[in-house]
Amino acid sequence: MNRLGIFGGSFDPPHLGHLQVARQAANELELDKVYWIPAKVSPHKLAENTTPSRFRVDMVRLMTQLDDRFVVDTREIEREGPSFTFKTLEDLGIEFPKSELYLIVGEDSCQSLPTWKRADRIRELAQLVVYKRVNPSQRVRAEALLNQDYWLKGLPIDVTSTEIRNLAAKNLNVDHLLTPEVAAYIKDEGLFQI
Fold first, then answer.
1. What is the span of the domain harbouring residue 89?
2. Using one digit for the tens of pLDDT, what is the confidence trace for 127-144?
3. Can you give the CATH number for the domain in which 99 is found?
4. Does 187 reside within a domain?
5. pTM of the predicted model as reported, rounded to 2 decimal places
6. What is the pLDDT of residues 38-82, one digit of tens each?
7. Given strand 33-38, what is the order of strands in its sheet?
8. Is residue 43 included in any domain, yes or no?
9. Omega before 14 within 30 of 0, i.e. cis
10. In-domain check, residue 185
11. How many domains is the chain built from?
């Protein structure tokens, strides 16, 4: 039976924290593949201006070429309307009926999981794999967790895509937070400039 990691998000941009989490999950859980799934429109980020999907997919492709366990999956970009995790997991369950699914989320996402559409269905379809955040406001309260949730053992992630965009918009160097390929792409495309 294959073990598949499901790693969704805006990836606006994908950064070294994302790479660390994906590799940590693949190693700790012995995942056969990690599916990076950029969201078209996250229901929790409707008010935010998101970089057009073609740029985000390109950056995810650059990131995922660094590990042969990584796969880019654009089903949410191609789907009409907001990206609902339960629907993506249902689709993957049909596509890979003999696979175990592991949904990789940050503490902040785990905290808000009860507000996600069909949160009960998400927990039926996949085991939750949670990575730690450094910011105390993103710490998970005990009631948001279940006994079967898996905590990654790696160091907490201390970077967010929002911080990178804000720094880049102020013309501050963000290369140390990105892979060289993604940093070069952002410069070449003139992304995140005011």
1. 2-159
2. 999 998 765 554 555 445
3. 3.40.50.620
4. no
5. 0.90
6. 998 666 555 467 899 999 999 999 999 999 999 999 999 999 888
7. 70-72, 33-38, 2-9, 99-106, 127-131, 150-151
8. yes
9. no
10. no
11. 1
